What does this fold into?
Amino acid sequence: MAVNAKKIAVYVLVVFALYLIITDPAKAADYVQIGFEGISDAAKAVGDFMTWLANGGK
It folds into this structure.
């Protein structure tokens, strides 16, 4: 049952993404940019944490 729910969720997400891209490409581009900025910020935070840890937590 969980596999079917996962497949349905992925299908709904793909359909929504395609709908968004077709109806409003500029807004879709904004969403992609926001997503990449979020990933970049998260990677920077992990890097800062690892640097802090490497420096003995100072």
User: Anything to note?
Assistant: The mean pLDDT is 91. The longest helix spans residues 25-54.
